[in-house]
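job 3f2a | input accepted
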Amino acid sequence: MNMPQLPAPLPADGQPLNLSRRRFLGASLGALVLGVLLPGKVVRAAQSAASEIKPGTRIPAFLEIRPDGTALLRSPFVEGGQGIYTAFAQIVGEELDIAPERFSVECAPPGADYLLVNGARFTGGSFSVRSSYEVMRRLGACARHMLLQAATARLDVPPGSLTTQPGIVVHEASGRTLGYGELAALAAGLPPPEQVPLRERKDFRWIGKSVPRLDARDKSTGKVTYNIDLEVDGMLLAAVQHAPRMGGEPGAIANEAQVKAMPGVHSIHRLPGAVAVVAQRWWQARRAVESLKVSWKEAAPGTVHAMPADFSSAGMRAALAAAPGPGIAAEEIGDAAKALEQASRVIEATYDAPYLAHGQLEPPSALARWNADGTLELWLPNQAPELFQQAAAKVAGIAPDKVILHSSTLGGFFGRHFLYGTANPFPQAIQLAKDIGRPVKLIWSREEEFLRDALRPMGLARFRAGIDESGLPQALYAEAVGESPTERWFGRQPNKANDAAVEGIAKKPYAIPHRRVAQVYLEHPPTIGFWRSVGHSMNDFFYESFFDEVADAGQQDPYELRLRLLADKPRHKALLQAVAELSGGWRRGPFTTGDGSQRARGVAMASPFGSEVATIAEVSLEGGSVQVHDVWVAFDPGSIVNPAIVEAQVKSAVALGLSSTLLEEVVYENGMPRARNFGAYATLPLGRMPRVHVRIVESGAPMGGVGEPGLPGVPPAVINAVAALTGQRVRSLPLSRTRFAGA
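job 3f2a | predicted structure (743 res):
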């Protein structure tokens, strides 16, 4: 995921605030509860419940030290498999001196205290840990200082004579110890320190170590509760059938009476763009709603984002290709147009990538309950609690503070759980619960999920490059055509290229003296959304594949040419050399392996979300299909918290990147997606998953993202390897659409 205008580095002088006496968020009696705030006027404003807190003025992190010595951390970010709860336990625990396994971590409720990302709250953009690293450290250090103060008073010893070991305060001179739980109540009454020292990196006990994930056992044993598992008293279940094309509305229902008489059915409802059945059990609701014979009315003229009946993905690809340039410049260095005119040779190519579904395992769901006091209680997976709270309030016609939102652990992330309007089920659940006066849990079937998913947009890029007599690139001219999710959901600036639309093409590190990168805007009829690594997921494929075309045209080895053009970029050059070393030494191929098969390798680089990545893939052809045997990834996120989680995230990103390279695409015909379930939407099977080798390189640069950067280098590395092996340059994904000569 990507957020526009990400905040600047966090201030180093964030000040703690003791919230224990406010009984914030129902803290346990005798617990020490802390929050971290910015100094000055923000502190004064926060002390008044009536004060309006501007988004982004308070840095959220609330810590509870319980009487039993355990700790509860309320995370401002949502856990969806990326491992942030474990990372936060390591970070806070490092400074607090509590072992990570002594923590429990939960998602904090909506509130101004948690607006950490650019005045908003959003789990995405591989930003959670890097945006809150220093804040979390200061929080733990502040709590430890207050516990030491409490122990000084309790033991009547001089300040500075105490130290800590995990979970206890130690007076070494007398051998006396006090557990954190024994001191929590006393520490809760103390003022937090103005300044607090942080540990030196050389003294880290848990940060930088492969601490086991806190949720691993519960996930492995089925104890984690996801949204679709939830139950409340008096709850009924619901299923929906959406209009086949976006914008359509339900008309007459031919068999309403017969369906209402089906076993377990409570009621039938007409909703905007859909019909629903509420029943005692979900399978009863689904069977009933799919039995409804609905006459769907076409979208009224002027309906926003109504799907045209003649829309197709093939037609959209043609529209992207035909969209005229030159577009709005995102990067201009030198004079690319003039350099192209003077080039010894000009290379041109157009690349494209398809719409993609999210395809997370947990289908969308929402549980809604109207309470007797007029509040609305919602349980739903989401990546932005405050945004969902505000949207739910608008749907319900009540104030946001009347919406009680529970953010469930996500059953898959990938950018699916953002606020995508009609791609979210919670408005339907709110209306159903209101109509019947009982709690309703709505679950979309897989078919309805595929019909209403917010897709990774189709993308297309046009390239021209000029090389000199020695085969070195002197000019690059690129146009990225389409619309990015940030434009759709955060608004478009007509005279400015959108960063997400050109990321992975603009600001590449290679020393090409003349270059122009532009965006040609063209709106998509389907609902589009964020997808893992956002614009990088396709743009790095476009650029890094075309880079190899330029190298071939100049009779340059693509690995050596990258090294040469990175001579003044030591971080990137070192990473490229690291991945070559990891793979046993660069060799492009084709070459014959010990089993007699013909193989080749491809290389690619990417700079996503503040991290740097170099990737090599080795491929062969088997039965006419591309088989990827090994993928090597050298990954530099600057610094890390948990190497095991980093490696797991890189490997999972490789899997998704490979799936999109080989197989995945959403095909539209007649305004509707062809695939309505996994049977028709191919994803990477286990037997085609390669060996993945990861080397983490900590360069000491500012901390970058982890969850998404492993993906963008995979498609171009594979495509470049296929080109080296077969001599065929594939410019359109997925590879399953390409027939190889002689295969």
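job 3f2a | The two ends are 38 Å apart (CA to CA).
job 3f2a | closed
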